Amino acid sequence: MNGSILQHLAVTTATDIVRARSVARQEAARIGFGLADQTRLATAVSELARNVLKYATEGSCTIHEDSTPVEMRLHITMEDHGPGIPDITAAMKDGYSTGGGMGAGLPGTRRLVDKFEIESSPGFTRVTISMVRKRQ
Amino acid sequence: MKVPIIRLGKVLLVSIQVDLTDAAALQFQEDLINRISETEALGVAIDITSLDVVDSYMARVINDTASMARLLGAEVVISGVQPFVALALVEMGRELINVDCVFNLEQALKKLEVSIAARGDRGGNRDTYEW
Ligand SMILES: Nc1ncnc2c1ncn2[C@@H]1O[C@H](COP(=O)(O)OP(=O)(O)OP(=O)(O)O)[C@@H](O)[C@H]1O
Ligand SMILES: [Mg+2]
Q1: Which terminus has fewer CB within 10 Å in chain B: N or C?
Q2: Number of structural domains found in chain A
Q3: Which of A45, A102, A131 to substitute to test the interface with B, most B CBs within 10 Å?
Q4: What ipTM was reported for this prediction?
Q5: Dihedral sign from CA coordinates of A104, A109, A111, A115
């Protein structure tokens, strides 16, 4: 990816969830995303960071920008070295949870953002979400 | 970080002022349920104007808290859901928040007053309703 890394955050404690979502919101605001998109991104980051803590114990969150003069472009990657997701198709379905949750996190996150990419294998999971908006 | 709980007659008032960690949210749930039980509150108004993110976890804590409160005998009303929070919650899907909501604390108190009066199941002591 072109562009630059804005933030790289460790996700190791529950406090990091709060920090990651607030940093994501700040960066989105600084780039020029509106309140609705800031909130979508903050909520998405919160869901993904919680999954990292819950299923992989720890991981990291990287915020990346490759905006152009015509577009605001923000990408957030959540990465961990936990057990991985054996069945991604199932995990993306509403209501599917192996952790006694509502199974709302991943499918909900996908609906909040413009682009959602997930790759996972034993020992590695990476979710990248993107938000792209034309500048006004 | 404790969430202060204020008693106003038969109603408890809570205003969540800061973004809560998961542990703080659960602590809040426990504190509130204990206070409802101690005070035999008939209603609880929870204002979340200051929350700029409500993810599925927080939504669940809010729903569970309301269910527990109802089991004890108290009604719960949420006030101050921010428009962008509402938008994100609905986009995420399903009925993530399943509790009565109003714009502000004043309306929350009115709503509680009405529903408590309508219940009329607390020993006929009229003073109870005049808080
Ligand atoms: N980082 C991860 N590592 C391993 N498994 C994961 C990871 N993230 C999600 N999963 C798996 O995908 C499933 C679905 O995740 P999702 O976030 O949608 O629901 P949940 O976390 O179970 O519940 P909720 O988010 O509603 O509290 C999880 O139950 C888990 O099995
Ligand atoms: Mg989840």
Answers
A1: N
A2: 1
A3: A102
A4: 0.91
A5: negative
Choice from B22, B54, B55, B56 to test ligand 1 binding pocket (greatest atom count within 8 A of CB)? B56
Nearest residue to B14 via CA among B69, B60, B56 = B69
Q: Phi/psi zone of residue A131: left (φ > 0), alpha (ψ -120 to 50 degrees), beta? A: beta
- Position B125 scores a pLDDT of 47
What distance separates the 2 farthest-apart alpha carbons in chain B? Answer: 45
Distances (CA, A) of B11 to A98, A130, B62, B66: 38, 44, 17, 14
Q: What pLDDT score was predicted for residue B104?
A: 96
What residues 14-53 of chain A have any CB closer than 8 A to a CB of chain B? 14-15, 17-18, 21-22, 25, 35-36, 38-40, 42-43, 46-47, 50
The pLDDT tens digits of the residues spanning B45-93 come to: 999 999 999 999 999 999 999 999 999 999 999 999 999 999 999 999 8
Give the separation between CA B19 and CA B48, rounded to whole angstroms.
Answer: 10
Enter the pTM of the model. 0.93
User: What is the set of domains in chain B, with CATH numbers?
Assistant: 5-118 (3.30.750.24)
Residue B122 confidence class, pLDDT cut points 50, 70, 90: low
Q: Domain residues for A124?
A: 4-134
Q: In CATH, what number is assigned to the domain containing residue A107?
A: 3.30.565.10
